[in-house]
């Protein structure tokens, strides 16, 4: 759950004219709900007496709802959105009349069928038939009404065969079906639906939705729906409200609210970032998507194949590097090694060659394959398979199982005069920083070295670094990883060290980008921005050759963090004149279409101004 | 007091009967003798108690087993209805939290269910009466009136307890002790005559003493209860009901926060 949550009111888009024409069915007027946390936990006389003596009663207050006002008109299908614990269900309970608000009033016009947590009042020992009568009675139906509609309920719930079986022998889906069938057999004035549609199988969910649709379309029933599911609310509702920590964030048409919720709901970030994105969201212009490209294979092994195909001359390349896709650090080494002569990088499963990679290798005329890692990282079966599918190729295996040794072996393996005059020293977990550096390190053919463990640099690595082959060592990692004392040998040898360390991955990204720009003015010419998801960079593991060909700058992004998004907006705006394309590495779970659209909107708007 | 419309009354009555029939079904489901237990249970209880008391204590009471079963069944009616009513609100918390429902129905239903049980146990009483050849008199027609008094009293106590126990769960544990003490403080197994003098006025404040005596008068001794006695029994029932009802109504709004 996000710690920093903005609760300010963003706006309302309900037109006054529209709301006045229809009869108001539910009117929530400045409702607040205060829970007394101190009293909540008191369950016995002793605790009560102690608390009374200490005058601690009515001490801790928790405002579940704070001054909420809304109106639902006849025939509206009203969605209530919000993250967990934001007060949605409390509001529904107040509307359903189960809970009395601490302040304010809630007026209901008509009878309510509450579908709040289905199956309340079912007795597992009783049969389905008995439960239908009992539950019907509890919901306020008359006996004759239940008798008249009994077959209808049974038919909807699809339980004809099991009517006289105790409910405890039913599956939970079946119980939910009966509950839903009983609750919706009546045509109420107001129907309240609280995430009930998330139970049951797919077919049943559709059936429930159809039933609700029938109630809406044929009987003009007013419906209130609570859901986390944006799409469902957008599909069913015409109006919606977003509640966060007991405050109304925005209300209006379902489409608007859902869109805002999708981008801002459950995300962390400062109020300024949020405002900026919200404002952008409200911008009606539709961006053209020619500027966007996405690399997202079905698996992490498919993406490098896509990258290879879009690499100019990639498929004619005679040599490739094969790295274990599950080990990010080794993949980074593969990129560093690839910089020597721009060999494409492909990834493999540790136990077998993925089909798509297998196919690609067979299509290509390959004369040499470099396999990174010993049998712990890539099994012998993979190498044997390579021998079979590419008999003409020489297969070189860098047979080391630790990242640190592998890095050193790779450095030795490449001819020393081929490597650049700068080296990167980092630790195995610092993948984000290495990715940020990749365009620069790739261009400058920088070897990559890892520390053995925190604060320990391998002896021969140290020797190579200070041997005079390098003019500068770039250190990626803070004091906690590389304390000053372990860097003493560099000082002695007179090798300058530049340390890169940011407060968070995005800060580090900014530091690295500006450092690189101060040295290389690559962004003065046409360049591309590569967006990499900070939480799951698996689609970017083989992007090295492409960063060079496309003249790229890498930006890491956390799509859940609004500050990270606006940070990248700012960068893009500043570089708008030379930016030629935005490339996303990651599927829709990392970068949604909406995220991409917002970025484009921002870019186009800054281009216009 | 709030006004209750007719359809709402009918709705509440349907809920009550549904709940009573649910309890009834659940109580005897999957037992071989089923509902017979309602008759058998008080009867066997009587056998045990009369065996114990006629061996060890030897009170000079005519038709002692009948004396015993009349008292103990009536007392059980009160004890069981208050105990089950007390837990009714907590047990139906899932319902109270989710649907708008008249909450007082839950304790009331438990009391009614126990009344149904009591009526079944009257069969056992009848059997004992036949065995001892105690002929029923016209005074037995007072029985429904007595049951009304006991019902008012138990319901009132049940409302009070069910409301209080939501806030203080300790009451639940305490009540079983109170019931045990009450059992011995009421002349169920012994005659009033063995009580020391100072206890007699105290006994007048024990409603169960009055109800049990009332029952013995009409069923065992063939006496007609006087007006004062009726008024005392009614008064105690009404007083309990009023206290219980208003406490319940005052507290019920907060139930949802505590159950």
Overview of this structure, please?
The complex is a heterodimer of chains A (609) and B (259). Helix content of chain A is 40%, strand content 21%. With 609 residues, chain A is α/β, with parallel strands linked by helices. In chain A, helix 6 packs across helix 7 and helix 17 runs parallel beside helix 20. With 259 residues, chain B is an all-alpha fold. Chain B is built from eleven helices and no strands.
Provide a short characterization of the protein structure.
Chain A has 23 helices and 22 strands. Chain A is α/β, with parallel strands linked by helices and 609 residues long.
Percent in strands of chain B:
under 5%
SSE arrangement of chain B, N to C: HHHHHHHHHHH
* Uncertain stretches of chain B: none
Strand order of the largest sheet of chain A: 1-10-9-4-8-7-6
Tell me the domain tally of chain B. 1
Descriptive terms for the model:
heterodimer, A: alpha/beta, Rossmann fold, four-stranded parallel beta sheet, 21% strand, B: 259 residues, mainly alpha, 11 helices, 75% helix, globular, P-loop_NTPase (chain A), AAA+_ATPase (chain A)
Helix/strand layout:
The complex is a heterodimer of chains A (about 600) and B (about 260).
Chain A: E1 11-12, H1 16-21, E2 24-36, H2 37-40, H3 45-53, E3 61-73, E4 77-81, H4 88-96, E5 103-108, E6 112-116, H5 128-138, H6 143-157, H7 172-184, E7 190-194, H8 202-219, E8 222-226, H9 230-236, E9 239-244, E10 247-253, H10 254-264, H11 271-282, E11 292-295, H12 302-310, E12 319-324, H13 328-338, E13 345-348, H14 355-363, E14 368-372, H15 380-389, E15 394-398, H16 403-413, E16 422-426, H17 431-443, E17 448-450, H18 459-466, E18 472-476, H19 488-493, E19 497-500, H20 505-519, E20 527-533, H21 544-549, E21 552-557, H22 562-574, E22 579-585, H23 593-608
Parallel strand pairs in A: 1-10, 4-8, 4-9, 6-7, 7-8, 11-22, 12-13, 12-14, 14-15, 16-17, 16-18, 18-19, 20-21, 20-22
Antiparallel strand pairs in A: 2-3, 2-5, 9-10
Helix pairs in contact in A: 5-6, 5-7, 6-7, 9-10, 10-11, 11-22, 13-16, 13-17, 17-20, 22-23
Chain B: H1 6-28, H2 36-56, H3 64-91, H4 93-98, H5 105-131, H6 143-167, H7 170-185, H8 199-203, H9 207-221, H10 227-251, H11 255-258
Helix pairs in contact in B: 1-5, 2-3, 2-5, 3-5, 3-6, 3-7, 3-9, 5-6, 6-9, 6-10, 9-10
């Amino acid at each position: 759950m996000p710690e920093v949550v903005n609760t300010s009111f963003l706006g309302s888009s309900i037109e006054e004219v529209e709301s006045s024409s229809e009869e108001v069915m539910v009117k929530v007027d400045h409702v607040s709900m205060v829970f007394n946390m101190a009293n909540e936990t008191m369950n016995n006389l002793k605790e009560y007496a102690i608390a009374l003596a200490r005058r601690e009663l009515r001490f801790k207050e928790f405002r579940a709802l704070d001054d909420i006002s809304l109106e639902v008109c006849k025939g509206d299908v009203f969605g209530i959105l919000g993250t967990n614990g934001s007060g949605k269900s409390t509001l529904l309970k107040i509307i359903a009349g189960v809970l009395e608000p601490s302040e304010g009033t809630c007026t209901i016009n008509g009878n309510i069928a509450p579908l709040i947590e289905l199956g309340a009042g079912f007795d597992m020992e009783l049969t389905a038939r008995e439960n239908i009568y009992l539950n019907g009675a509890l919901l306020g139906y008359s006996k004759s009404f239940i008798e008249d509609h009994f077959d209808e309920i049974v038919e909807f719930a699809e339980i004809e065969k099991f009517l006289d079986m105790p409910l405890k022998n039913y599956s939970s889906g079946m119980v939910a079906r009966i509950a839903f069938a009983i609750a919706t057999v009546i045509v109420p004035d107001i129907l309240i639906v609280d995430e009930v549609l998330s139970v049951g199988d797919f077919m049943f969910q559709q059936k429930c939705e159809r039933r609700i649709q029938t109630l809406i379309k044929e009987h003009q029933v007013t419906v209130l729906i609570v859901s986390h599911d944006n799409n469902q609310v957008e599909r069913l509702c015409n109006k919606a409200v977003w509640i966060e920590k007991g405050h109304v964030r925005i209300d209006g048409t379902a489409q608007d609210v859902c869109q805002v919720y999708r981008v801002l709901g459950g995300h962390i970030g400062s109020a300024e970032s949020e405002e900026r994105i919200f404002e952008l969201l409200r911008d009606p212009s539709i961006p053209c998507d020619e500027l966007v490209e996405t690399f997202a294979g079905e698996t992490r092994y498919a993406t490098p194949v896509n990258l290879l195909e879009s690499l100019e001359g990639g498929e004619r390349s005679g040599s490739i590097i094969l790295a274990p896709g599950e080990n990010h650090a080794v993949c980074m080494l593969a990129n560093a090694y690839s910089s020597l002569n721009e060999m494409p990088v492909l990834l493999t499963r540790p136990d077998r060659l993925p089909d798509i990679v297998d196919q690609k290798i067979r299509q290509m005329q390959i004369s040499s394959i470099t396999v990174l890692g010993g049998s712990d990282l890539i099994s012998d079966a993979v190498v044997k398979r390579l021998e079979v599918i590419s008999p003409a190729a020489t297969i070189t295996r860098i047979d080391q199982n630790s990242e640190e040794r592998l890095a050193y072996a790779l450095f030795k393996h490449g001819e020393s005069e081929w490597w650049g005059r700068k080296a990167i020293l980092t630790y195995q977990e610092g993948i984000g920083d290495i990715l940020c550096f990749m365009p620069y390190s790739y261009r400058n053919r920088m070897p990559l070295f890892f520390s053995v463990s925190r604060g320990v640099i391998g002896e021969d690595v140290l020797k190579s670094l200070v041997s005079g082959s390098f003019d500068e060592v770039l250190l990626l990692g803070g004091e906690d990883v590389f304390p000053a004392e372990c860097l003493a040998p560099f000082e002695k040898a007179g090798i300058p060290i530049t340390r890169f360390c940011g407060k968070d991955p995005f800060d580090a990204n900014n530091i690295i980008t500006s450092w690189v720009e101060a040295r290389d003015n690559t962004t003065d010419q046409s360049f591309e921005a590569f967006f990499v998801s900070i939480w799951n960079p698996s689609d970017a593991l083989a992007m090295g050759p492409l960063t060079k060909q496309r003249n790229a700058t890498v930006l890491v992004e956390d799509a859940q963090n609004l500050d990270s998004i606006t940070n990248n907006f700012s960068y893009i705006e500043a570089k708008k004149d030379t930016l030629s394309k935005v490339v996303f590495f990651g599927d829709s779970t990392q970068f949604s279409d909406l995220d991409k659209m917002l970025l484009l909107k921002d870019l186009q708007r800054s281009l216009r101004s | 007091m709030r006004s209750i419309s007719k359809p709402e009354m009918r709705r509440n009555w349907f809920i009550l009967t549904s709940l009573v029939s649910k309890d009834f079904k659940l109580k005897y489901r999957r037992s071989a003798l089923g509902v017979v237990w309602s008759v058998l249970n008080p009867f066997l209880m009587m056998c045990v108690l009369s065996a114990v008391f006629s061996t060890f204590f030897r009170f000079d009471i005519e038709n002692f087993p009948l004396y015993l079963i009349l008292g103990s069944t009536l007392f059980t009616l009160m004890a069981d209805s208050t105990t089950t009513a007390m837990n009714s609100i907590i047990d139906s918390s899932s319902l109270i939290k989710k649907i708008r429902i008249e909450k007082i129905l839950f304790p009331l239903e438990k009391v009614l269910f126990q009344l149904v049980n009591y009526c079944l146990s009257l069969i056992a009483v009848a059997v004992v009466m036949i065995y001892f050849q105690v002929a029923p008199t016209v005074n037995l027609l007072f029985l429904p009136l007595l049951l009304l008094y006991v019902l008012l009293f138990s319901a009132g106590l049940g409302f009070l307890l069910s409301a209080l126990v939501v806030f203080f769960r300790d009451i639940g544990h305490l009540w079983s002790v109170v019931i045990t003490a009450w059992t011995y403080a009421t002349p169920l197994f012994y005659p009033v005559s063995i009580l020391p003098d100072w206890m007699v006025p105290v006994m007048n404040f024990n409603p169960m003493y009055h109800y049990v005596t009332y029952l013995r008068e009409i069923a065992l001794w063939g006496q007609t209860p006087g007006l004062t006695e009726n008024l005392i029994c009614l008064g105690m029932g009404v007083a309990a009901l009023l206290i219980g009802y208003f406490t319940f109504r005052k507290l019920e709004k907060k139930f949802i926060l505590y159950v």
